[in-house]
Amino acid sequence: MQLKTINTFAVTLMLTAAVIILFSTGFLEFPAADSAVPSPKDSIFYSLSKSDSPEPFRDLFGAFKKWDSEVGCAQFRETHRDLLVNGSKMSSLQNAEGGIECGELQMKHVSVLVKGWTWVPDNMDNLYSCRCGLSCLWTKSSLLADKPDALLFETTTPPILRRDGDPLRVYMDLEAGRKRSGNEDIFISYHARDNVQSTYAGAVFHNNRNYQLSSDKNNDTLVYWSSSRCLPQRNQLAKKILSLLPTHSFGKCLNNVGGLDQALSFYPECVKDPNEKPKWWDHLHCAMSHYKFVLAIENTMTESYVTEKLFYALDSGAVPIYFGAPNVWDFIPPHSIIDGTQFSSIEQLASYVKSLANDPVAYAEYHAWRRCGVLGNYGKTRAASLDTLPCRLCEQVSEMNGRDAKAL
């Protein structure tokens, strides 16, 4: 009897040691605790991960109807009740609706003259009615703003010196590096720590596009991807994903559809104007909408650098497969994307995407935020975009007293 007890203890000790060795060598590896890999405790994903009968589907309306009957907005809102009751308290976004108190404004009218060529769309030129009775003229015309209170530079550097009585110098850089010119009085970029934040989530870049979206999703080719800036690291990641998931790649990088500008041959209904030569962007959303998933890989994985690559996919009615900013959830609706970085391997990600594509209820869950009005931080992200930049910049200029600001 004593010998049996000793043997049992010895076996247990050896098994424990073996497990420790396997973990220490990395042979056994599990996703991190905050992994986005679906939890079996979630009833929706439990059916996804355990289902023995895949249910391929094409009709998104049909998927919505099935989700409504099995889950519904009431349950989705309850799941995200904290967001609805308390809101999000993330520090990745500035308060776009009152960061400056009305009493702090020094001027009732501000004019901003945009200098040189910029990425700023022409349709932003306007006379805006802002908070606290402030009016804001944003223009590229020196005729309309002959004595501007601020000069906005983007692709050119502001003057080195600013004398008393000169306009304030504003510099904007929305690229990942966020490099200040060193000469500006106000700096605009995508981060909350900048003087004025501008996210990529606005609608001003969406002009002149065909917004006809398809409810009929491809069942054979699951993923849309288009990139024409072939960065080695991004290409390597995309190539791996393309090898595991059926994908149409429409850009210059890893093109597999027979050349550029092929989207309209696949989807002629996406032509914006048959009398005009098509441009790559005018049918972007329409083409994306035919796919269940859009691959969105940022140029660089940088905090708060969440670009149009993600927001275009959301606007098209597809589910983004995202690789980018580590704090991306601070900017988007709950349960709206597949965060590729949270999977333990690309193979695991691909397996999940394939299963999701054959589960209409689980797939429809990724659209519930829009249908049920559960936006999370997304409302704040839109509020801090280029759409509202003129008023927010004019408030900053007014607080500093424009031309009357003391030169440093």
From TrEMBL:
Documented EC number(s): 2.4.1.-
Residue span, Fucosyltransferase C-terminal domain: 219-402
Protein name, entry field: Fucosyltransferase
Protein family: Belongs to the glycosyltransferase 10 family.
GO cellular component: Golgi cisterna membrane
Pfam families in UniProt: Glyco_transf_10
GO molecular function: alpha-(1->3)-fucosyltransferase activity
InterPro entries: Alpha-1_3/4-FUT_pln, Glyco_tran_10_C, Glyco_trans_10, GT10-like_C_sf
Membrane topology field: Single-pass type II membrane protein
Compartmental location: Golgi apparatus, Golgi stack membrane
Keywords: Glycosyltransferase, Golgi apparatus, Membrane, Transferase, Transmembrane
Pathway given in the UniProt record: Protein modification; protein glycosylation
Record-linked Gene3D superfamilies: Glycosyl transferase family 10, C-terminal domain
Alphabetical list of PANTHER family matching this protein: ALPHA- 1,3 -FUCOSYLTRANSFERASE, ALPHA-(1,3)-FUCOSYLTRANSFERASE 10
Main localization (coarse): Golgi
